[in-house]
């Protein structure tokens, strides 16, 4: 167990809920010296956002440099969640920070990041721009940070507001803490308009997807995290399997339907749809404030996501050639197509490049047509491919009518991506595959 003793600078009176909630909080402050020790143990995995260098962090640096005595007044400080809390003598408290999914810095990530980078800049004349780099530097140089700080304390004359949320001593308080802490964390971060994907990630909606995809793709699940694939792009495409279930009455009746066109044009709706499915009591079980997917049917539908991402990359690279095969004319002569640049497979499953850089709207309906290749096995309660699109011979697709429709809408990728006739034609194309 990772325990740490914090020396509080202000009073450490415990505030309990007047409404009978078995969670309590302590509001006080800590010194930069205590902050250094805290950051060596605490992380912000519980926080749905990752702090980065921006106007906020620069403003905090300016306050710490020019008017450090005002930081305690100007900042909300750091919010810490911990399962275990003990009051000690001399205004000290002992907390645990072992379970990083629930314990740690749950709000105030930008304050933490800004203070840490400010200390590093002052002591080492080194500028760091990411949370991961800062944490790594802290771990690797902790003893040196302590040593340099002791000889330069006069540079850090400020107090850091701190709030600690923890179970009280009543029976069942730990269970209640786990039930509510994710909800509290999301609410505390709402003042920055936290994206629905970050909220969904916080409560576990995407955990099953992450388990199967994170070792293959660099997906950004948390706001401010590093990566090159947006989580909403993955979530929207993974919704295809869920749409198939809904169309075949294999999801609860009270789950609202999602139009396939939304996968191209309204990814926010896809996220809402996905979250609604995964939060349903018939699909997932809520444990410690997080949703654990139990439905084998939904799991099997989400298992198709990796194949869909592979197919997306293949189709992006090959679509210009398929266009040429289906009808005379040069794809590169379309005004919205950049024939001077080659296109990179967006999900990185292939090193092949497209001959052109162009809008995904040209082929999004074809991606959504993949539901015609899905089949439900009632005996095993699972969805599977009739033919895996990852291995599909793309030259076998008859796109002649699809290309004619492209001409009718004057080669406008927006009209293609939002046109229901293209989605109907795409389903027909895949229906013909044996």
Description:
Helix 10 crosses helix 13 (296-302). The mean pLDDT is 90. With 434 residues, the protein is an alpha+beta fold. It contains 18 helices and 16 strands. The protein has 3 domains: 3-193, no CATH class; 198-302, no CATH class; 305-431, no CATH class. Residues 54-221 form the Abortive phage infection protein C-terminal domain. It holds the Pfam family AIPR. This is Abortive phage infection protein C-terminal domain-containing protein.
Q: SSE layout and pairings?
A:
Blueprint: E1 3-7, E2 14-16, E3 23-30, H1 32-39, H2 55-66, H3 71-74, E4 78-81, E5 85-87, E6 92-96, E7 104-107, H4 109-124, H5 131-140, H6 142-150, E8 160-167, H7 173-188, H8 196-202, H9 207-213, E9 219-220, E10 229-230, H10 231-247, H11 261-265, H12 267-279, E11 284-287, E12 290-293, H13 296-302, H14 305-326, E13 343-344, E14 353-354, H15 364-368, E15 374-377, E16 382-385, H16 400-408, H17 413-417, H18 420-431
Parallel strand pairs: 4-8, 9-10
Antiparallel strand pairs: 1-6, 2-3, 3-8, 4-7, 5-6, 11-12, 13-14, 15-16
Query: Could you list the spans in which at least 5 consecutive residues all have pLDDT below 50?
Result: none
Number of helices: 18
User: How many strands, what sense, and barrel or not for the largest sheet?
Assistant: 5 strands, mixed
Q: Beta-strand percentage?
A: 5-15%
Task: Tell me roughly what share of residues is in helical segments.
Answer: 40-55%
CA-based gyration radius? 26 Å
Structural class of the secondary elements? alpha+beta
Total count of domains: 3
Total strand count, please? 16
Strand order of the largest sheet: 2-3-8-4-7
Q: How far do the termini sit from each other?
A: 57 Å
Please state the oligomeric state of the protein chains shown. single chain
- How would the global form be characterised? elongated
On the 0-100 scale, what is the average pLDDT? 90
Pfam families: AIPR
Organism: Flavobacterium piscinae
Protein name: Abortive phage infection protein C-terminal domain-containing protein
Domain Abortive phage infection protein C-terminal: 54-221
């Amino acid at each position: 167990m990772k325990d740490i003793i914090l020396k509080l600078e202000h009073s450490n009176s415990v505030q309990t809920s007047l409404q009978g909630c078995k969670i309590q909080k302590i509001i006080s402050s800590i010194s930069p010296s205590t902050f250094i020790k805290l950051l060596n143990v605490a992380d912000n995995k519980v926080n749905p956002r990752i702090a980065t260098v921006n106007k906020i962090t620069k403003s905090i640096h300016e306050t710490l440099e020019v008017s450090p005595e005002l930081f305690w007044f100007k900042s909300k400080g750091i919010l810490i969640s911990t399962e275990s809390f003990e009051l000690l003598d001399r205004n000290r408290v002992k907390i645990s920070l072992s379970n990083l999914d629930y314990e740690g810095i749950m709000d105030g990530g930008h304050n933490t990041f800004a203070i840490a980078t400010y200390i590093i800049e002052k002591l080492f004349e080194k500028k760091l721009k990411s949370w991961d780099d800062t944490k790594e530097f802290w771990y690797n140089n902790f003893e040196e940070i302590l040593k340099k700080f002791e000889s330069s304390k006069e540079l850090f004359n400020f107090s850091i507001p701190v709030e600690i949320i923890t179970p009280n001593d009543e029976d069942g308080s730990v269970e209640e803490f786990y039930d509510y802490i994710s909800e509290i964390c999301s609410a505390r971060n709402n003042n920055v308009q936290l994206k629905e994907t970050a909220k969904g990630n916080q409560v576990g909606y995407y955990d099953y997807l992450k388990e199967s995809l994170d070792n293959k793709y660099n997906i950004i699940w948390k706001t401010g995290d590093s990566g090159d694939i947006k989580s909403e792009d993955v979530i929207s495409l993974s919704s295809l399997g869920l749409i198939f279930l809904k169309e075949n009455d294999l999801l609860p009746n009270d789950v609202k339907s999602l139009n396939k066109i939304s996968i191209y044009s309204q990814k926010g709706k896809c996220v809402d749809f996905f979250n609604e499915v995964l939060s349903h009591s018939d699909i997932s079980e809520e444990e410690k404030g997080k949703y654990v997917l139990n439905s084998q049917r939904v799991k099997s539908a989400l298992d198709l996501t990796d194949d869909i991402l592979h197919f997306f990359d293949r189709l992006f690279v090959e679509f210009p050639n398929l266009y040429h095969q289906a009808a005379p004319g040069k794809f590169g002569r379309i005004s919205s197509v950049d024939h001077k640049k080659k296109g990179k497979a967006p999900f990185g499953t292939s090193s092949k490049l497209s001959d052109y850089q162009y809008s995904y709207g040209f082929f999004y309906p074809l991606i959504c047509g993949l539901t015609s290749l899905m089949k439900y096995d009632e005996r095993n309660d699972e969805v599977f491919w009739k033919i895996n699109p990852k291995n599909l011979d793309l030259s076998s697709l008859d796109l002649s009518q699809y290309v004619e429709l492209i001409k009718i809408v004057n080669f406008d990728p927006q009209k293609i991506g939002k046109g229901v006739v293209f989605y109907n034609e795409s389903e027909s194309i895949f229906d013909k595959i044996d």
